[in-house]
Amino acid sequence: MKPETYNKPLFAEEIKEVFRGEIIGSDIIFLESTTSTNDKAIEIGRQSKNPEGIVVVADAQSNGRGRLGRRWISPPGCNLYFTVLLRPPLPAKELPLIVLMAAVAVVSAIRKYTGLKAEIKWPNDIMFNGKKTGGILLDMRSDAGRIDLIALGIGINVNQSLDLLPEDLRGSATSLKRETGSEVDRIRLLGEVLAELEHWYKILLSDDKTLLFNEWLRLDSTIGRKVILEGVSSSTRASGGISGIAEGIDSQGRLLVRLSSGSLKSVSAGDVTIAKNQGPSPKELR
Ligand code: BTN
């Protein structure tokens, strides 16, 4: 049996052939299998003097983690599971902006590479036709209110056969292969995502983030819709459920929801369901 840290250079070399960044991809580490690329990346980051840009990719995960304590089903040979280590000079309260940036990068890459009109569902879901095809999970270490190290974990259902998913997920999940009708090259798609991350991360770190916000709004399916939010964290409430119209996001990436009382609530974390039977989205009417 190969040790967990077995590095398959051919795979990493192939990735380096399709992508070379100034920041992202400073090192690319490939593992045939690991518990979770986020956990492994944090371990690697702790031992590295300059962890920014290191990418940890695994073919399979035995303990793939999703948001809100959920599992991320991670079988071998079909999907993308990877984590990028970042050290942005941002206050910890701006963490949601990293998710926003990553969502723009992943959706842009999927659109460019497959032609599918993937969309973002705030905060971290990658959707196609209302079904989830990817997700983003951030783990952070902070020091005195500043971000010390971020593990930006990305999972994309690329060639996953839906029959292999647990029954309760089959109706709400999809894969790129399922939607395009053909096998998608994982390495080339990964190269595309890393290139988009490099592009949007630089914009996130620049003085003018307008381009990033505008692109997020263009690729998002949440704004203008009636939404139901569970597990909400907001300025006034630690947890619970609310519903209202998603009106926009603020400069820290929080979702602004207009409640039926007329008040506007800013939500920093939660699980969004877009209410059914609302007719076409405001975007479709444009
Ligand atoms: C979600 O939508 O709940 C987030 C899913 C994130 C999954 C990825 S796969 C790579 C990285 N390692 C993990 O354990 N999780 C993330």
Describe the 3D structure.
By secondary structure, the chain is α+β, with helices and mostly antiparallel strands. Helix content is 29%, strand content 30%. The chain has eight helices and eleven strands. It has helices spanning 9-18, 37-47, 95-114, 167-170, 176-180, 186-205, 210-219, 282-285, and strands at residues 27-34, 54-61, 80-86, 119-121, 125-128, 131-143, 146-156, 226-234, 242-249, 255-258, 264-274. The protein has a seven-stranded mixed beta sheet with strand order 1-2-3-7-6-5-4, sandwiched between helices. α3 packs across α6 and α3 crosses α7. It is globular, with a radius of gyration of 18 Å. It starts with 8 loop residues before the first helix and ends with a helix. The relative contact order is 0.14. Mean pLDDT is 88; it is low at 1-9. Bound molecules: biotin (BTN). Biotin binds next to α2, β3, β6 and β7.
Which features would summarize this protein structure in a list?
286 residues, alpha+beta, 7-stranded mixed beta sheet, 29% helix, binds biotin
